[in-house]
Amino acid sequence: MLKVKNVTKEFKTTDNKVVAIKDINFSVPEGQFASIVGRSGSGKSTLLTILGGLERPTSGEVIVDGKDISKMSGRQQVEYRSKKIGFIFQSYNLIPNLTALENVMIAMEFTGVSAPEQKERAIKLLDEVGISTDKASRKPGRLSGGEQQRVAIARALANKPKLILADEPTGNLDSKTGKHIFNLLHELSRKEKATILAVTHDLSIAGKTDMTFRIDDGRIVQK
Asked: Of the candidates 56, 146, 184, 212, which lies 20 to 30 Å from 71 by C-alpha distance?
């Protein structure tokens, strides 16, 4: 489902050239939950932005659902992100003046789905991630960190994406809540038939995913 072939990303500075990632190769089948582990500065965040169509590789291919997104036009990449990708951020990125339910519904605003259908799917997803009807009507400020992350996961699933990219999804959570979130992602990858790729520094959690890749100095060093 996801194939990364010989992906390299270089940045030019005034004095020299910086190679953020070099010759990255790996693949993740549909419905699998994979993780990429690596220390800060290893290149994992750069890789994630490329997989999400937010950045173009200097060379190489990123094939999602049979299409090379690195060759898409700017407009095509925007459409790709809105229809094929779900993002889960460490900082949740929920809209503070909207309720949990509205935060999930807004992800479907430009998809042609009717308002009643948006609400029905949002309620279903929030229930799947353990957010009650009462908490669905609350704004993010009245939810715990773990609850906010659950809402963020429901929002990422709203458009039935083929690929979900998670950037340190448990980084702001305590150990117990973090484990619950990872178990939830594992369950949802099966139920929603979504491929999930999570960047994390937590080796104990990463070891529980279906696949684990290790990145060091911009290269995949272990599979």
From this structure: 212
Domain 2-222 CATH superfamily: P-loop containing nucleotide triphosphate hydrolases (3.40.50.300)
The pLDDT of residue 41: 83
176 vs 148: CA distance, rounded Å: 15
pTM of the model: 0.87
Sheet of strand 67-68: strand arrangement: 17-28, 2-12, 59-64, 67-68
Tens digit of each residue's pLDDT (9 = 90 or more) over 210-222:
999 999 999 998 6
Residue 148: closest CA among 104, 118, 195, 192:
104
Q: What 3-state class would DSSP assign to 196? A: strand
| Distance, C-alpha 81 to centroid of its chain | 11
Domain ranges of the chain: 2-222
Instruction: Supply 140's token pair.
Output: 């993010």
Confidence of residue 24 (pLDDT cuts 50, 70, 90): very high
**Which ranges of the chain does DSSP label H, i.e. alpha helix?**
44-51, 74-84, 100-105, 115-128, 133-136, 145-157, 175-191, 203-206
**Residue-level pLDDT at 223:** 61
